[in-house]
Design a protein that fits this description.
It is a single chain. This protein is α/β, with parallel strands linked by helices and 328 residues long. 39% of the residues lie in helices and 24% in strands. The protein has helices spanning 11-21, 36-46, 54-59, 75-85, 99-109, 126-136, 158-163, 167-170, 173-183, 198-201, 274-277, 279-295, 303-322, and strands spanning 2-7, 26-32, 49-51, 65-68, 89-91, 116-118, 143-151, 186-194, 208-215, 220-226, 234-241, 244-248, 257-258, 266-267, 326-327. It has a seven-stranded mixed beta sheet. A six-stranded parallel beta sheet has the order 3-2-1-4-5-6, sandwiched between helices. A hairpin with a 2-residue loop joins strand 11 and strand 12. Helix 1 crosses helix 12 (279-295) and helix 9 crosses helix 13. 43% of the residues are buried.
């Protein structure tokens, strides 16, 4: 059983704490967060120690592995602290707020024998994972087009958006990783940003974006994002090849359909948000992390994957701002 410490006590830390509690191969032993109310509440919920200083987690001999859920500006120092302590870590995305910081992190990590996994949990979604496996197996011939649709049920607060790094680094970052997971290295990025929500526009961010990515072989991924969707959390993917296609549709709590005098083929709403929609993905992500910890094999998604996603995000920002295609 791997003994795990979590750095941070916010919403994503709560997701990981629940996954650990439900996994017989893992044991949560400590939570570190400088905000006593949040840290103590989460620690008490799972009957573990609360620590005010993250350094105490990295230096704790009982802690064998770490999940980094701290605010994004702290990801780099916390990743380096885990590497220095010789402890495997799962770091939430994005690994930094800008590509320059990620590039420096990659250089600094060369001094250590590290094992860091980046939290791109959508790779572990059972539906997306199956599509990827079947594409790799050649079931639809050569992949030609990948379409990713990701729309949130409602926008976060303007206050959050102002410090989030923007839609490309905060929201689309998962889709950049998914696209690269299917297509490999991306050669060009073309993005269009939309200012349709005046409250979000005031922050300088976009409320919706459409991005086209191409690889060196001419394969194309289209990403469609929106900060709001009246129908709920819209998460779909289509992989199209010469010999067919695979489609993953939205998920609902049940498959029941209603036929009445006022509606036919009526279904329940989409699962509300990422906590419900990607619960299985988070559980499978933890399993993959534990496998890396137990075996000593290098974890995936890697720091290199996290770096690629940030560089794609900044290329998309440049494209949306200038109206030009960015060559990578």
């Amino acid at each position: 059983m791997v003994k795990i410490g979590i750095v941070g006590a916010g919403r994503i830390a709560q997701v990981h704490a629940k996954s650990i509690a439900n996994n017989p191969r893992a044991q949560l032993v400590a939570i570190a967060d400088p905000v006593q109310e949040a840290g103590e509440a989460l620690a008490n919920q799972y009957g573990v120690r609360w620590l005010a200083d993250a350094d105490d987690i990295f230096n704790d001999p009982e802690v064998e592995a770490i999940i980094i859920c701290s605010p994004t500006p702290l990801h780099v120092p916390h990743i380096l602290a885990a590497a220095k302590a010789g402890k495997p870590a799962l770091a939430e995305k994005p690994i930094a707020m800008d590509a320059a910081a990620v590039d420096q992190l990659v250089k600094d990590l060369e001094a250590y024998d590290y094992n860091i996994m980046v939290g791109f949990n959508r790779r572990f979604d059972p539906n997306f994972s199956e599509i990827h496996q079947r594409v790799e197996a050649g079931e639809i011939g050569d992949l030609e087009q990948l379409t990713i649709i990701s729309r949130d049920p409602e926008a976060p607060s303007p206050e959050y958006i102002a410090v989030s790094g923007g839609i490309f680094k905060d929201m689309t970052i998962h889709d950049f990783d998914t696209a690269a997971f299917f297509l490999g290295d991306i050669a060009t990025v073309t993005a269009v940003g939309q200012h349709l929500d005046p409250e979000i526009a005031k922050t300088g961010d976009y409320d919706a974006v459409v991005i086209v990515l191409t690889n060196k072989d001419g394969k194309v991924a289209t990403i469609i994002n929106n900060r709001h969707d009246a129908s709920g959390y819209d998460q779909r993917i289509e992989a199209f090849g010469r010999e067919g296609s695979f489609i993953a549709e939205n998920q609902r709590d049940t498959t029941v359909r209603a036929y009445t005098a006022t509606a036919t083929d009526a279904q329940g709403p989409f699962q509300h948000f990422f906590l419900e929609r990607y619960a299985a993905a988070f559980a499978r992500e933890l399993d993959a992390f534990l496998q890396a910890v137990e075996s000593g094999e290098k974890a995936s998604p890697s720091i290199a994957d996290g770096s690629r996603a940030i560089h794609l995000a900044e290329a998309a920002e440049e494209s949306a701002r200038t109206g030009k295609t960015v060559q990578l």
